[in-house]
Write a structure and sequence with these properties.
Layout: E1 14-16, H1 17-30, H2 35-47, E2 49-51, E3 66-71, E4 77-82, E5 93-95, H3 99-104, E6 112-116, E7 122-131, H4 133-138
Parallel strand pairs: 1-2, 4-5
Antiparallel strand pairs: 3-4, 3-7, 6-7
Helix pairs in contact: 1-2
């Protein structure tokens, strides 16, 4: 089921304008090929507070960020949030189009989000830490 359709807890999320624009274009391009993923991503974009890139609060998950998070009942994981073409689970790079990737975008350390997984079971994800050091150095 889509993330947006089954939320019990939808925290405020914040996106950098550049990420929001690129992700909106991705959702539009994806609409015909994968409507469910496009809808999931669009729902996240619709509820986001969009700020200028230089106004994004430190510790906010954005594209390219390294995120340490926990899923209920599992050991914490660390991943880099990437666009679909860069995804490689073996290298810890997770696509923003996956349910977990879409859930992470725009959250900050300490925030959590609930959704229903593909298996129909409720899930809770909590962001533990966000590292955007490499992104800041690249600017």
């Amino acid at each position: 089921m889509a993330l947006a359709n089954c939320r019990r807890h939808s925290p405020v999320i914040t996106l950098a304008r550049s990420d929001h624009e690129r992700l909106a274009n991705l959702a539009d391009a994806l609409a015909a090929r994968d409507p469910a993923a496009a809808e999931q991503l669009a729902a996240e974009l619709d509820r986001a507070r969009v700020v200028a890139d230089n106004r994004l609060p430190p510790g906010t998950v954005r594209m390219g960020a390294v995120v340490r998070f926990s899923l209920e009942g599992a050991e914490p994981r660390t991943v880099r949030l990437v666009y679909p073409g860069e995804a490689d689970i073996e290298k810890g790079r997770i696509s923003v189009l996956t349910p977990v990737g879409a859930a992470l975008i725009g959250l900050s350390a300490g925030q959590s989000i609930d959704w229903t997984g593909r298996d129909g079971r409720p899930r809770r994800l909590e962001v533990i830490e966000v590292d955007t050091t490499e992104l800041a150095e690249a600017s």
